[in-house]
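Dear colleagues,

As part of the handover before I leave the project, I'm documenting each prediction I ran so the next person doesn't have to rerun anything. This entry is a single chain, and its sequence is reproduced below.
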Amino acid sequence: MIGSRIDRWHRSFLSWTVPFLLTVLLPISCGYRLDSVQGEEGRGLRRVFVEPFTNDTSEAKLETIFRKAFIDQFVRIAGYRLVENRRRADVILSGHIVGFSAAPLSYREDKLAAEERLTVTVEIIFQSGDSQQVLWSDRKFSGSEVYLLKGTDPLLVRELRSQALEKIASDIAERAYQRMVSGF
C-alpha cells in the first residue's frame, strides 16, 4: 500500500518535473536562445548595411534580386535594422555575382526545353562596420534551381524564370547567413 503511494507520487512528480526541467534547462545548457543572432547581439551587432550587389553576368537584374534576398534575410528573419549608409552600420554585407548559367534538362516533343536548371555563383563578404575587418567571406557561394517551362508564352516563361532566381537568391541568403553567424 505504502509502496504504491510512493510509486504514484513518484510518477506524478516525474510527469511534470521532467518536462519542466527540459523546457527550462535544455535551452540554457546548450547555449541556444530563441534569438538566432545571440552572438551578434552580445557584441552589439544589430545594424546592417547591404551594399548594392554588382553583376558580372549577362542576366539582367540579378544584383537587385540578390540584394533584396539578403536584406530580407537580415531584417525580416534575423531582426537586424537596415541602415542607409556604411558609417551607421555595425556590419556590412557586400556581394558580387560572378557566375550564371542556364542549362536545359529535358525537352518536349517540339524540341523546345521542358525544364531548365539555373545556377548562380556569388562572392559574399561580411565585415564589421567600424574596422572593416572581414568576419566571413566566400568567393564561390552557389545555388541552383530547376524549373518547368510551361507553355510557350514568353511572359509566363519569364515569370517562371524570375521565380526560380528569387528562390535561388533566398536559399543562398539563408545558407550564407547561417554560415556567417556560426562563427560567433
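Residues 2-30 form the longest helix (29 residues). The longest strand covers residues 91-107.

All the best with the project,
I.
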